[in-house]
Every structure is written in C-alpha cells, then in structure tokens.
Amino acid sequence: MTGGQIFHEMMRRHGVKHIFGYPGGTILPVFDAIYNSKYFDFILPKHEQGAGHMAEGYARASGKPGIVLVTSGPGATNVVTPMQDALSDGTPMIVFSGQVATAAIGSDAFQEADILGISRGCTKWNVMVRNVAELPQRINEAFEIATSGRPGPVLVDLPKDVTAGILRKATPTGPAIPRIATYANTDANHKLLTKSISHVAKLINTAKKPVIYAGQGVIQSPNGPQLLKELADKASIPVTTTLQGLGAFDELDEKSLHMLGMHGSAYANMSMQEADLIIALGARFDDRVTLNVAKFAPAARAAAAKGLGGIVQFEILPKNINKVIQSTEAVVGDISENLTHLLPHVNRTSVAERQAWFKQINEWKAKWPWNAYNRDERPHLIKPQYLIEELSNLIADRKQETIITTGVGQHQMWTAQHFRWRHPRSLITSGGLGTMGFGLPAAIGAKVARPDALVIDIDGDASFSMTLTELTTASQFNIGVKVIVLNNEEQGMVTQWQNLFYEDRYSHTHQRNPDFMGLAGAMHIQHRRVSKPEEVVDSLKWLIHTEGPALLEVMTDKKVPVLPMVPAGSGLHEFITWDAHKDKERRSLMQDRTCGLHG
Predict the structure, then answer these.
(1) How far from the centroid of its chain's Cα atoms is residue 347's Cα?
(2) Quick check: 500 and 526 in contact, CB under 8 A?
(3) How far is CA 7 from its chain centroid?
(4) pLDDT over 70 percentage in the chain
(5) Do 31 and 56 touch, CB atoms closer than 8 A?
(6) CB of 90 within 8 A of CB of 320?
(7) Of the residues 160, 209, 383, 482, which is catalytic?
(8) How far apart are CA 227 and CA 245, in angstroms?
C-alpha cells in the first residue's frame, strides 16, 4: 500500500465520515488515494481557514475529532488560526498537512514551511512522519492525543515521498499507544481522590450560599450535564455557566443564574461574589469570568479562611489547578467519574432550606433582569436583542435539535444573553481566542455532523465578512445552514469600547459592506432583508422553514451597547447595566480603564 492508501485505510478504521480540506501539490498522493472513497465524504471549502473552522464546528457538534487535510506552505499556515482556536477552546481536531519531500526539507523548496515549528505553540502535539512504515502509528497517536484528557488540535506533517512511498507489509492493527490513564488510576491517587471528595461533600453539606460555576468541561464529559443537574437538584444549588458552558444546565430551571462574567447576568456575578462556596466544574477561571482577580469571590475566600467554604475546582488537567485562582480543594479527573463519586456523599437539601439565599438571588433577578435593554429608544429600528429573543421563542419546541453558531463581537454576547439555552452542544462559538469569521464555517461543519439539526449562524456584518466566501461551500454541497447577519455597518464591540474609553474616537471601525443580498444571490443562496421591527417574526419564520442554505440580513439599530458590562480592572460585582441611564456616569466610571480588544 502507498502512504496515501494507508491514510485512507486508517481513516476508515477510525470511523471517519467527513474530511474538510483543500488539495495542493505535496498532498496529492493522499487526495488521489481518497478519490471517490465510499467510506467518507470530502467537503471542499474556499479557504483552508474555512476548513479548520468547519472541522471545529463538526467536532463541537458531534464530540468526534474534526479532520483537516491540506497541502504544505500556505495551505498549512492558513490553518494556524483554527488550530489555536481549537487549542483555546479544547476542541478535538486533527490536521494532516502535506510537506515537501524529505530530501528537500531545509532547501527553501517551493511551498516549504516549517509547520512543526510554526504549530508547536498552537497544538497539543505535532509530528513529521519520516517514513511510510511509521504512518499507521502516527495516525493512531494523533487520534489518541486529540481526544484524550482536555481535547485539542494535533498536526501530522506528511512529506510527499512518505505518502507516495510503498509499505510492503500489512498495516498494523489496533492503537499504537495505550489509553492515557486517568488521575485516579493508581492506589495513591485513589486515596487522594477519596479524601478530596469527602472534603468537598463536607463543604457542600455545610455551605449556606453555594454556587456551581460550570464550564465546557461539563459538556465534554459523557454524562456531565446529567450529573450536574443531579447535584444541583439534590443540594439545591444555583448554577451559572461560562460562555462555552451554555447548555450544560437548563436555563428555564429556577436555579439557573445564566451566564456570568464581563457580559454575564448581574445576578450571576453578584452570586459569585457573595457565595460562601464556589464549585467550579470544568471551568478554568479565565479573565472574562474573574475580571480583577484580587476582587474575585471575596465571600468564598473569607469562608475558606474560617474553614467553612471556599473554592472547589473539578478539573481534568492538573496543570490548570491554581493556575489563576487558589482553590480550597481540587479534584482532578473526568467530571462524570468524580461527580459520580461525590453525589452519594451530598446531603439532600431543599430550596426551602436555602430560602434566604434564593430570596437574595431572586431580588437580584428582579432588579437586573436579562431583558432590561432600552426598547423605547428609536422604536422604529430593530433591536438585536429583540430579534434573538424572538428566534428563541419561535424554536422553543425544537431546541434539542437546534445548534447556534456565532462569530465574535456584540452579536455573540447578545446571542449568549438573550437566547434561552437548554441543551448541551447547542452553542458553538469561539471563546478563548475570539476569532472573528468563525460562525459561518463552524455552522457548515456542525450541519455536516448533524444533518437533521436546525443550524443557525447568528453573525455580525464585520465578523461575517471575514469568511463569507464559504457561502459558496454551503451552496455547492447543499449544506442547509441558516445565516442571520445583524448589520449595524460597524465593528460593534470595538466601537462600544471606543465610545466608553476613547471619547467617541471611532478609529477605523466603520466600513462599507458589500450588498449582502446581491452577494447571496451570486452565490446561489436564498436571501431576504428585514429592516422593520414588525417584520422580524415573519422573516425569522421564512428563514427557519426555507429548504437549503439561506441568509437573512437584519438592518439593526446602531450604537446599541452590550450590557451588563464589567469594565476592565473592576471586580465582578462592579458592572454597568441599563439602569445606569446616564452616559456621563458611565464614562466617569470607565474613563481611566482601557483594554485592548478585537471583536
């Protein structure tokens, strides 16, 4: 078998059903081998970055690694952003890149690039295959490493003479390396785990004001969402989620605090600041959640000093323990395994027994509701929050079969805030890296993974413009994604910061968009534009029920801020809401706080 044929065989053995990529000279032996394969489909994007984000969307929707196949040089470097995005968000992705023949490496050959060196910082692992005999082992390793522990991207570099070379013995069967052991697989670690679980249970059973802070790790763990619900129900603990954790807990549950953080709900932020016990499940305390670390969780820290509470961290990677916040107790390993150990030791506690805590939370909810945005100002214009609320209402009975993707910017935060999240893997967005242009290709990948799902990309005009050529990919392969472009004709999140921090100096954040309707028509995409609030519902119904790919452009009100907002350098409780009706007060609060932003 040639190296290309070995690649095809190994993809078959690993159950690969779809590959995203773009051909080129150094990877042609592989493309020739997979020509007309009956085992998997190939999705050809318009740009390798699109292939990478499609693979991310595929992985996030299915839980299986997304596969990317590209050529050397620019083909490989174009996937660097998706690889870093996948690393930041813990997405399993395997990139196979072509490379010049081994004899030409280092000679500055045509389309040669040191992709191993380039990708070392944005992958979990990378390797160059030096001879055809080691190819099966390296592919097995790639699948193992991409999906073990905290998932992430890996890269396998394939010189052309390796993929064109011939292996004269049978392809090895079975995995090349053993499954990576869990933290609790040794006797010593088992004893440590038992001790930690016992301590956590004691803290939960004695806490007066506990909060569960759930991240994407809950969604990625096989039974994470179900076990999270069991813990929250049994101990009557309110739950807040990160952006990537949305869907881990049903937001219609009375215990839901919705999303926390810089643009999180005021009541989630207040709960985190006043809780005597914070139970972090698969969440990494990133800066968009903690804000000013010195001001984070003062009540929990005070309780920890008295031995009555603190911060408990359930984390799959030991290196993430105490990385940002000092924890009172840490439990390392898979969330599902460790919650299964914990639950029998947790006392059943009713909401009534936590009456004072829930009373306080409900007062915060009444004071600062999610939907407190200004509806009366310029009522003839479409408020983006209103459109997202109406979309959420229209598909309320089919959310288990719905996936929402977004780009990055204001539209991303409005979507997180005003859509009601009820099921895991229903939101796919770029969190850690904040990659504009992510939404459309991620939606295509998600739709390929789950063809029966309703997949909607809620995008902004600036973010959408970065990868809009992938509309032709949706058209070519009849991938029925729905796209909503919230068009305010500016880079909304950046202009919001320029308004608040830079005295309305809008430096290079307004742009002339193409005619999105004409563009969609040229790409054979069904399209419609809406500019009046009274036409929003009918337009959304059209989008939802249209067969095949479709685009809805929404002309929205401009200079609408995303609120609540915690200014840079502030504590989680020092947020600005719509109640701060005075721009002067808002600017006075924030005039000395500046922070870089792209989105």
Answers:
(1) 33
(2) no
(3) 29
(4) 93
(5) no
(6) no
(7) 160
(8) 14
What is the fold of 384-562?
Answer: Rossmann fold (3.40.50)
Cα separation, 599 vs 495, in Å, equals: 10
Q: Which two tokens stand for residue 43?
A: 């999705």
For residues 571 and 426, give the distance between their C-alpha atoms in angstroms, rounded to a whole number: 30
Rounded Cα distance, 506 and 511, in Å = 11
**Distance of CA 484 to CAs 182, 208, 251, 393, 525, Å?**
42, 44, 23, 16, 13
List 9, 17, 42, 111, catalytic entry: 111
pLDDT in tens, 4-57: 999 999 999 999 999 999 999 999 999 999 999 999 999 999 999 999 999 999
Task: Kindly report the pTM of this predicted structure.
Answer: 0.93
Looking at residue 502, what is its pLDDT? 86
CB 463 within 8 A of CB 488: no
- Is 125's pLDDT higher than 80? yes
Amino acid, single-letter form, for residue 561: P
Of 271, 270, 265, give the one whose Cα is nearest residue 251: 265
> Half-sphere exposure of residue 30, counting CA atoms within 13 Å on the CB side?
33
Closest CA to 54 of 430, 458, 439, 432: 439
Looking at domain 3-164, what is its CATH homologous superfamily? Thiamin diphosphate (ThDP)-binding fold, Pyr/PP domains (3.40.50.970)
- At position 222, the amino acid (one-letter code) is P
Helix (H) or strand (E) holding 147: helix 135-147
Whether the Cβ atoms of residue 460 and residue 410 lie closer than 8 Å to each other: yes
> Which residue out of 413, 493, 523, 590 is catalytically annotated?
493
**Residue 110: half-sphere exposure toward Cβ, Cα within 13 Å:** 4
Confidence of residue 374 (pLDDT cuts 50, 70, 90): confident
Structure tokens at 456: 């909607």
Of these residues, 11, 20, 48, 244, which one is catalytic? 48
Architecture of domain 187-367: 3-Layer(aba) Sandwich (3.40)
Instruction: Confirm whether 187-367 and 384-562 share one CATH topology.
Output: yes
- H helix runs in 213-371, sequence order: 216-220, 224-235, 266-274, 287-290, 298-305, 335-342, 355-367
- In tens, the pLDDT along 193-245 reads 889 999 999 999 999 999 999 999 999 999 999 999 999 999 999 999 999 99
Q: Are 348 and 235 in contact (CB under 8 A)?
A: yes
- Rounded to whole angstroms, the Cα distance separating 237 from 203 reads 13
- Beta-carbon contacts of 285 under 8 Å, excluding residues fewer than 6 positions away, are 323, 324, 325
Q: Tell me the C-alpha to C-alpha distance, in Å, between residue 439 and each of 23, 202, 220, 427.
A: 23, 43, 20, 11
Write out 366-416 in H/E/C secondary structure: HHCCCCCCCCCCCCCCECHHHHHHHHHHHCHHHHHHEEEEECCCHHHHHHH
C-beta separation of 562 from 414 below 8 A? yes
Question: What is d(CA 511, CA 489) in angstroms, rounded to the nearest whole number?
Answer: 6
Catalytic annotation present for 48: yes
Map out the domains of the chain as residue ranges. 3-164, 187-367, 384-562
pLDDT of residue 579: 66
Residue 114: both structure tokens together: 């040191």
- The residue among 259, 265, 262, 254 whose CA lies nearest residue 240 is 259
Q: How confident is the model at residue 186 (pLDDT cuts 50, 70, 90)?
A: low
Respond yes or no: is residue 110 known to be catalytic: yes
Contact 4, 167 (CB under 8 A): no
